[in-house]
Amino acid sequence: MYDNLDEIAKKENVPVEKLKARIKRGSLVVLKNSVRDIKPVAIGEGTKTKVNANIGASPDRFNLEDELKKAHIAVDARADTLMDLTVGSGIDELRKTILKHTEIPFGTVPVYQAFSENKQDMNIDSILSAIEKQCRDGVDFMTIHAGITYDIIKNLKGQRLIPITSRGGSLIASWMAENKEENPLYENFNEILEILREYDVVISLGDALRPAACHDATDIPQIQELINLGRLNKIAKKKGVGVIIEGPGHVPLDQVEMNVKLQKKICDNAPFYVLGPLVTDIALGYDHISSAIGGAVAAMHGADFLCYVTPSEHLGLPDAQGVKEGVIASRIAAHAADMVKLNDNKIDYEMSTARRDLNWKKMFELGIDKDIKKIYSELCEKEECTMCGEYCALKSARKHFE
Amino acid sequence: MYDNLDEIAKKENVPVEKLKARIKRGSLVVLKNSVRDIKPVAIGEGTKTKVNANIGASPDRFNLEDELKKAHIAVDARADTLMDLTVGSGIDELRKTILKHTEIPFGTVPVYQAFSENKQDMNIDSILSAIEKQCRDGVDFMTIHAGITYDIIKNLKGQRLIPITSRGGSLIASWMAENKEENPLYENFNEILEILREYDVVISLGDALRPAACHDATDIPQIQELINLGRLNKIAKKKGVGVIIEGPGHVPLDQVEMNVKLQKKICDNAPFYVLGPLVTDIALGYDHISSAIGGAVAAMHGADFLCYVTPSEHLGLPDAQGVKEGVIASRIAAHAADMVKLNDNKIDYEMSTARRDLNWKKMFELGIDKDIKKIYSELCEKEECTMCGEYCALKSARKHFE
Fold this sequence. Notes:
Two copies of one chain form a homodimer. Chain A is of the alpha/beta class. Chain A folds into two domains: 6-341, Radical SAM ThiC family, central domain (TIM Barrel, Alpha-Beta Barrel); 346-401, no CATH class. Chain A contains 18 helices and ten strands. Chain A has helices at 5-12, 16-25, 64-76, 91-101, 110-118, 124-137, 150-153, 167-179, 184-187, 189-199, 220-239, 256-266, 287-300, 320-341, 346-356, 360-366, 372-375, 393-401, and strands at residues 28-31, 41-44, 50-55, 81-84, 106-108, 141-144, 202-205, 243-247, 272-275, 305-307. In chain A, the strands form two sheets. Chain A has an eight-stranded parallel β-barrel with strand order 3-4-5-6-7-8-9-10, surrounded by seven helices. In chain A, helix 12 links the parallel strand 8 (243-247) and strand 9 (272-275). The radius of gyration of chain A is 22 Å and the shape is globular. The first copy, chain A, starts with a helix and ends with a helix. The relative contact order of chain A is 0.10. Chains A and B meet through helix 8, helix 13, helix 14, helix 15 and helix 16 of A and helix 5, helix 8, helix 13, helix 14 and helix 15 of B.
C-alpha cells in the first residue's frame, strides 16, 4: 500500500509523506496489484484527475483483437486506467490478454464473471472464486456492488423513472429479488476485503443505483446506497483496503457540485469515481460531450476519477474511434478541472504562447490529440490559418501590442 | 421593438406583458430587422438559451455554395441564428445569398466590410455606409466593437500573453494605433445607433479584448472594455436600440460564473453572448467540447446566447461537418443549462421513458441529432443494444422493479 510512492511523488509533484498521510486517511489510493509489474497510479486528494476507459465485449459482439485494439487506442489517447466490462463468454481470455499487453492499471467487475458462468445459481462461493482468480491474474481494482441492500430494493418498485441501469447492480438486485436474500457482496464484505488486501487490490464500491435519468438524480435510493457505501468505506479502511467510491450517472448541472460534496462528506473524503455525469438525457450519439460537461464540473468540485463515456453510450459498444473520442473528451474535462484545482496550467500557457507565435509545430505537440497534426499538417508550412487568412488578428496585433 | 411578441410568448412560454417589461428593462432583445420577413427570436431573461453558428469565408477560401451549405446544415442542426464573418471579397454577395435562403436571424460585423474594402483608409464614413447597407439588406443584429478605446490600447503592450484575438478588435485597435485616433465606433456611437434603430437592428457590443488564453481571462484590459460596454449599453437603451453584450473567450472553469455575474451587473442585465467560453487552451481539434463545458456553466449562471465553436477552431474555417458538430455541442450545453434555469426537462423525461421501454424509434425522435437514426437504424428491429446484449440492465430490472 505504501510501496511505489517515490515514482508517484515525482509524477504528481506531491511529497511522499503527504501521499502516505492521504493514503492513511483514505483520501488517496494507489492502483497496482502486488503481483503486477506496472507503474502505479494514484487517485485522490491533490493528484491529477484520472480518466478510465471501459473496454469489453458482450454476448452480441466478442472479438479479442477488437478489444485489444481499443485498449491500445485508449492508452495512446492517455487513459490512466482500463476496465474490462465483458459479460458472457471469453472473460478469462480477454482479461489475461489485456493484462499481458498493457501497462496501466486494469479494473474488472467480478460479479460479471460469476453471473455469466452461473446465472441465477451464482452464490457467494462463485463470486469469491471469481474475485480470487482475477486478483491472482493481476487486476488492480475491482467494482464491488456491495452497497445495494435488500431493504433498499424491496421498496424500489415505482420509485424511479428507470429503476436500475447499472448492469452489475441489476444482476445483484434481480438475484436478491429472485432468491429473497441479502446482497452476498454486502453480507460477505469482510471475506472479499481479505482477498483484495492480499493482492493490494483497490475496491471500487459500485453505485448500483446510480441515476439513469436526470429525473432520478439525487433521489432516495441513490442516497440510501451512498450511506451504505460510506459505512463500507469505514470497514474497508480499517481492514487496510484502499477504497474508491463510484458515483452518478445522469445528474442535472446544478446538482453536480452537491453530489460531489455529499459523497466526500458521507465517505470521509474517499476518492470519487464518477460515470459522467451526464447533464442531459437527450445527447444521443454525443454523450461524450454531455459527460465532459458534467465531468469537468464534478472534478473541479473534487471528483478524482472520471469514467469516460463514448459517443455510442446508450446505443451500443463503442468502436475504436469511439474509444478515442471518449478518452479525449474526458481528458479535456479532467484537465479543465485540474487547471483550477491543482493550478495545472503550464501546458495551456505554452500552447497560448505557441498560438501567439503561430508556431504550428509546437501547437500540435501540445494539443490534446497528437493525430490532429496529420489532418492539418499543411499549417506547418505557413503562418496564418484559413480562418482569417491575411486578416489574422494574432499577426496584425504583433506590430503594436506584443 | 414590441412587435411580434405573441409568437415569441407562445414559443418561450412567457406572457407578452413580461416580455415587454424585459425589453424595456433591457434584459431581453428581439432579433428581427423590420424589413425582413422571418420569425423573430428572443434572447435574454427567462427565455431559452440560444445558439449562434458562424459561417463566412476568408481570402484563403471563398465558395458561395460551401457557405450556403454550411448555413443550411446549421439551421438543420437547430442553430437559432447565423452570423456571416466573411473578410476579403464577396461580402455583399454572400450576405444577400444567405439572407435570401435562410429564415433565422442573421448577424454581421460591418467593420469587416469597411476594412476589407478600404484597409487602413477605412473611416467613419465607410463604416456607417457598410452598416446602413447591411441594415437595408435585412441583417438582424450587428457586432460593433465600440468598447475598445484609445486609452485601453495605448497601455496594452506587454500586458497579456495574447494581446488581441478578436478579428474586429484587432482591425480597430491597429487602425487606432496607426492613426493615433480614438475608435470611430466609439466616437460615432450615436450615429450608428440611429441607423440601427431605423431598422430595429440589435447591436451586439463586441468584446475586442476577449481573452485568447486562459492566462489572460478576467484581466484588466478585458474588464476595462466591459466597463465601456456597460456605459454604451445605457446609451443604446436610452436611444431605444436593443443591446447584446459579447463576452469571453478563454476562461478557466472557476472564473466562468463570476464573469457572467460581473457582466450582468455592469451591463444592467443585458443579454450576454459568450464565445465558448473555452475552459482550456489545449483542446486543439476538440474546442467544441472545451466550449460546451464553458458554455453550459455560463448559461446555467445566466449567459443567454452561446456562439458555437467548431472542432476546427484555432485551425481553420470549419467544413460542413464541423458546423454541424459545433451547433450540436452548443445545443447540448444550452439545453443542459435550460434544464436548470428554466426547468426545461420534459424532453429528458420523455427520452428516459423511451430508454426504459427500449423504444428506439422514440429515442431517435427525441435525440439531439436526428441523423443518429441512420447509423443505428438496426436497433429499431430489436430490443437491447450491443452494449449488454441479453444482460441488459433495463430489461432485467423490469420484472421486479418497474
